[in-house]
Amino acid sequence: MDLSTVIGNIWELLKYEADRPMIFSSGLFWALFVVFIPVYALLKNRLWQMILFVTAFSLYFYYKSSGIFFILLTCTSLLDWTLSRLLVTLDVKWQRKACVWVSVVASLGILGYFKYANFFLWNWNAMVEGNFQPLDIILPVGISFYTFQSISYIVDVYKGRVAPTSTWLEYLFFLSFFPALVAGPIVRADYFIPQIRQNRHATTQETFIGLWLIILGIVKKAIIADYIAQYNDLIFQTPTGYSGFESLMGVIGYTMQIYCDFSGYSDMAIGIALIMGFKLMKNFDFPYKSKNLTEFWRRWHISLSTWLRDYLYIPLGGNRKGTIRTYVNNFLTMLIGGLWHGAAWKFVFWGAMHGVGLAVHKACRPWLSRIPDTRWVKVVAWSVTMLYVSLLWVFFRADSWTDSWLIIKNIFTNFSLDYVVPFVKVRYVWLIMMAVIIGAHCLPQRWHDRMLDLFIRSPWTVKLILFIIVVQLVIEFMTENVAPFIYFQF
Amino acid sequence: MNRNYLAVWTILSVSLLIITLLSFLDSISVFGVEFKSSGIADRLTQLPDTTIANSGSVDDEKVVMETKFPAPLDTASQNILIIGDSMLEGLNPRLAAYAKENGHTLNSVIWYSSTSKYWGTCDTLKVFLRKFKPTFIFISLGANELFVRNIAEERDAYVKNFLKQIGDIPYLWIGPPNWKKDTGINDLIEKNVKEGCFFLSNGMHFDRAKDGAHPTHASAALWLDSVARWMPAHCAHPIKMKKPTEAKGRPASVTVLQPLR
User: Fold this and answer.
1) A314 CB near a chain B CB, below 8 Å?
2) Minimal Cα distance from B259: which residue of A?
3) B1 touches chain A (CB under 8 A)
């Protein structure tokens, strides 16, 4: 083994590669985190050195995922921080508001350019029947997430919910905090910034909860989501090539895949932050247990739905301006939430339909509350909710409207139970994976707590063995096309 | 260092060390079950010149012309079956477009992670031959066997048995798109197939997907275009492969088989 070759290869690995963003379940992040921990531990009691080190690591993490755009993140943070410092020195209301507007417009302007410019140009082109070349724009990874964090900061400073950070470095630490940087959970300034100054050490229990969450996240993302994605992708790539039963399995598969993928990432992010002594917001709370759409959005991507509630729905008037306006505000919030997911009409449609669903549920509440809450009613309510959510995932995932309709049509017109036995024979591993995640989802909370408790109390050798087993399982089930997290693109 | 950090660091670093060390072994097997390697050792020790450049498109000039004869073109519409490993994900859409353009019917069987050993030890192929009754078969196998040691001895019987199942049905074996020098799979295939039934992909340049192994869909389409251009002059049984106007199509059916565990 030639040492210079090894060093050269490591150097190459550390460089930015456009098609290989750094993800928590990758070997490279694992190796870097092993280097990160002792340095972090040594600097933990020296606040400013710790802040500087973590910020530098976060910016490197972002450079590895998005290349030169780490400079954009740095500039955005400098502008936000300068405006927030200016804001608190001003007494005139319109001047204070102007600071907020400049910051929000700058953040949204950058997001709009990178994420939506081509989308609007395409639509404009379609309307005027023009002929243009799309702009050569690369979307910086995670821009939607940190833009929302930046907006929450300036608004919270304006509202007096949080004092502006005394230094730019502290703010950059908040905005670039690597566990939550590229795919959330969306960190709120009033929740996170006070934790920086507290600089608390994680307790032993929190440290092992963090490790448990990392393991759980790896299982969800790198084993289950990536494996079941292989079959789901085939269904969505070739909608007419499969029977209705197989298409139905693909739709159910994607419903679980997106949950495992995104909640797995969130678990890892929360776990890493917790080991570092920082608490991030819970992002998922068994969303597929929901018995109505309102409950679903209280359990799914909680950091986004509460952000939309606090910074969009309530400023729009919330439920304070009458019944009709409440429904309209709900609808608009979800519509914008849909567009936040991606610059395509399918996301707008997905968001709008969730908005319609929420409005309908709100409108029916007085009537629904009169129905006795029996087991069968619960089953029906859960089934209707899951059917609605799953069908909308088809539009979210499929490449086009045509494909979405083809898949749905296929399920309803080409369904035959003859495919069940061959399906079980051929795709038993896929079914086992699905059974594991559905089973885990259905377990009562106390079972999860019990498993966590057992893990915390187990000797470190048991934890080590468990970690190695999980890593080997990842290697065994690794697909040849390792997929980045679905939510990276948002 | 704080005890908590030390505990987490120990777990993460010891496991990383173990997984890395294991990747330096040729194979790990416990009670007859073989475990996959993490590939860390390969990634760290690979020589830069063994990595095929990730730029450029399929370079026809690199394709080694294997045969000399132009056989008569079979102008009939074919019932095509394509079988193989995950490389089919890239080849399928383009081959389906060719099939549509030329009036053929295409059925596809993807067996993920499959090798000549998979196909050569069971009668899976026979089942699909009975089901689809193909008149022409494309094979894309070998990518999962690029680095098998003693491949000439170990896999020869499987390749022979696999080809025996095909019998007299005309076929073309599209060789694996090497991303590193192989240990002999291309030579093994070439030795066993009939003349004009093997398209050597080794030496071609591909844009690779994130895993560094699979060609991107665009590159796979160009790969198949190269096969189609090669066929009239060099294939033992050339069929109509006029370049399609549409970029991609959909096979009449896609059957997916999961990797063996």
Assistant:
1) no
2) A429
3) yes
Q: Are residue A155 and residue A226 in the same domain, yes or no?
A: no
Query: Which residues, including other chains, have CB under 8 Å from residue A459's CB and lie 6 or more apart?
Result: none
For residue B54, tell me if it sits in a domain.
Answer: no
Q: Is B44 on the interface with A (CB under 8 A)?
A: yes
- Structural domain including A42 reads 14-198
The answer on pLDDT for B62 being more than 80 is no
pLDDT at B91 over 90: yes
Test mutation, A7, A29, A34, A463, chain B, max B CBs within 10 A: A34
Q: CB of A330 within 8 A of CB of A346?
A: no
The number of domains in chain A is 2
B33/B154 same-domain check: no
Residues whose CB is less than 8 angstroms from the CB of residue A63 and which lie 6 or more positions away in sequence, other chains included: A16, A70
**Is A10–B44 a contact, with Cβ atoms under 8 angstroms apart?**
yes
Is it the case that residue B49 has pLDDT exceeding 50?
Answer: no
DSSP secondary structure of B24-46:
TSS-EEETTEEEPP--HHHHHH-
Residues B138 and B20 in one domain: no
Q: Is B254 in Cβ contact with A241 (below 8 Å)?
A: yes
Is residue B55 in some structural domain?
no
Cα A430 from Cα A424, distance rounded (Å):
9
Contacts B105 to A, Cβ<8 Å: none
Give how far B51 is from chain A: nearest CA, Å. Answer: 12
Domain that holds residue B115: 60-257
Does residue A477 contact residue A227 with C-beta atoms inside 8 Å? yes
Say if residue B159 is in the same domain as residue B247.
Answer: yes
> Per-residue confidence at A132, pLDDT binned at 50, 70, 90?
low
Do B113 and B20 fall into the same domain? no
A270 and A191 co-located in one domain = no
Interface contacts A/B by beta carbons within 8 Å: 130
Same domain, residue pair A351 and A443: yes
| Pair B79, B11 in one domain | no
Total domains in chain B come to 2
Residue A483 scores a pLDDT above 50: no
Q: Are residues B166 and B68 in the same domain?
A: yes
Summarised one tens digit per residue, pLDDT across range A181-230 is: 888 799 988 889 989 988 888 899 999 999 999 999 999 999 999 888 88
Does B213 reach chain A within 8 Å, measured CB to CB? yes
Whether A367 shows a pLDDT value over 50: the answer reads yes
Asked whether the beta carbons of B140 and B85 are under 8 A apart, the reply is yes
Tell me if A37 and B15 make a contact (CB, 8 A cut-off).
Answer: no
Alpha-carbon distance of A439 to B92, in angstroms, equals 35
Catalytic residue among A341, A354, A361, A441: A341
Q: Tell me the pTM.
A: 0.72
Does the pLDDT value for residue A490 go beyond 90?
A: no
Q: Helices A143-159 & A70-89, crossing angle to 10 degrees?
A: 10
**Chain position carrying tokens 């948002």:** A490
Contacts of A8 in chain B (CB under 8 A): 48
Distances in Å between the Cα of A451 and the Cα atoms of A191, A440, A447, A448 are 28, 11, 6, 5
- Does B50 fall in a domain? no
Q: Enter the tokens of residue A93.
A: 């209301």
Say whether both A321 and A357 belong to one domain: yes
Question: What confidence tens digit (pLDDT) does each residue in B144-190 have?
Answer: 888 887 888 888 989 998 999 998 899 999 999 988 778 889 999 99
Q: What is the CATH number of the domain that holds B175?
A: 3.40.50.1110
Instruction: Answer yes or no: do A219 and A319 share one domain.
Output: yes
Q: Do A336 and A402 share a structural domain?
A: yes
**A448 is annotated as an active-site residue:** no
- Chain B residues 18-37 with CB within 8 Å of chain A: 18-19, 35-37
Mean per-residue pLDDT of chain A: 88
Which of B2, B43, B251 lies at the smallest CB-CB distance from A41? B2
Q: Which residue of B has its CA nearest to A464?
A: B11
Asked if B257's CB is within 8 angstroms of A426's CB, the reply is yes
Q: What is the mean pLDDT of residues A287-305?
A: 93
Residues 471-490 of A with CB under 8 A from B: 471-472, 475-476, 478, 480-484
Cβ contacts of A482 on chain B, cutoff 8 Å: 210-211
Domain check: are A141 and A234 in the same one? no
Q: Are B71 and B52 in contact (CB under 8 A)?
A: no
